[in-house]
Amino acid sequence: MNARQASGGIVVLAALAVLPLFIRSDYLLGILSVCFIYGIWATSWDFMSGLTGRENFGHALFIGAGAYTAAFLNGKLGFAPWWGLPAGAAMAGGLSLVIGIPTLRLRGPYFALAMLAAATIMQRLTLIFWQYSGGEEGIPGLDPLLESKAAVYYLCLGVFVAITFLLLWLAGSHWGLILRSIRGDEAAAQAAGINVTFHKIAALVVSAFCAGIGGVLYAHYQEAVTPDVFSVALSISIIIMVYVGGIGSLYGPAAGAVLLALLPELLRGLGQYRLWVYSLVLIFILFFAPGGVIAPLWRRVTGAS
């Protein structure tokens, strides 16, 4: 990271830190908190899929695992909401092992399809076992992690920044180089003596762990959890955010997720045309900037290679 990158990052973080001093609306602070949660999900997806090239079409599986774990602990068993953070992350990480060990040994699109199927099955199970999961209504009445919207804003921002920097550090380490070598040529990496399957599974566990934390934050922010957290639509939305930000860069998807999650709110004044404009913006970006927007722009501004 060069000096211009570091300076730019500090300026952005400082602006986000002082924003609540100028925004008095709890509603807007809540929207921004959700944007940071989406940033956690996008960055965690990019760490595994962006670095290794093994795309995950069921990232919502880990989000939902974290969210429902927190909901059961707090809403059903009466535990304090903070217990959901380690428990939800651990549940998502454990689930990634169960799914990843058999599927990441396969080549081709089988991992992506297995993840898609797993998320869909989990969503159906929440409906089948409605006595425990609440069915379509989910589990309501969760306690918030913090009382004020400003405090929740700073919590989500802090977790978002911490996870992003952690994953950036891991991506820049020797392990990150191994993951990128797998994306470049998996067969050559294996021939060089790298245990490809182990590193892919480890990357998936880290990705799921972080996604689970985001799921817990989301559940307690909404003060409820429903089967929608396992939806395919959520997984696809996250993937779109990653590609708009710039896949494989981590900071690009983080910023892209925040901006795209905020965009529908910025377009609210357009009324019924809001969805049309939002879709056209996405199509334009994905068609004319397949390498993403945020990461290439940041490299150009900061002079990064």
Explain what this protein looks like in three dimensions.
- The model has no long low-confidence stretch (mean pLDDT 90).
- Helix content is 75%, strand content 1%.
- With 305 residues, the protein is mainly alpha-helical.
- A two-stranded antiparallel ribbon has the order 1-2.
- The protein has helices at 3-22, 26-52, 60-76, 84-103, 110-128, 130-133, 149-171, 174-184, 186-191, 196-222, 232-245, 251-266, 274-288, 294-302; strands spanning 139-140, 224-225.
- The chain contains 14 helices and 2 strands, in the order H-H-H-H-H-H-E-H-H-H-H-E-H-H-H-H.
Low-confidence stretches: none
Shape label:
globular
Strand content is: under 5%
Helix-residue proportion: over 70%
Count of alpha/pi helices: 14
Side by side, the strands of the main sheet go 1-2
Q: Give the biggest beta sheet.
A: 2 strands, antiparallel
Give the overall average pLDDT.
Answer: 90
Radius of gyration: 19 Å
**Helix-strand topology string:** HHHHHHEHHHHEHHHH
Category by helix and strand content: mainly alpha
Please provide the count of β strands.
2
N-end to C-end Cα span: 10 Å
Tell me the layout of helices and strands.
Layout: H1 3-22, H2 26-52, H3 60-76, H4 84-103, H5 110-128, H6 130-133, E1 139-140, H7 149-171, H8 174-184, H9 186-191, H10 196-222, E2 224-225, H11 232-245, H12 251-266, H13 274-288, H14 294-302
Antiparallel strand pairs: 1-2
Helix pairs in contact: 2-7, 2-8, 2-10, 2-11, 2-12, 3-4, 3-10, 4-10, 7-10, 8-10, 11-12, 12-14
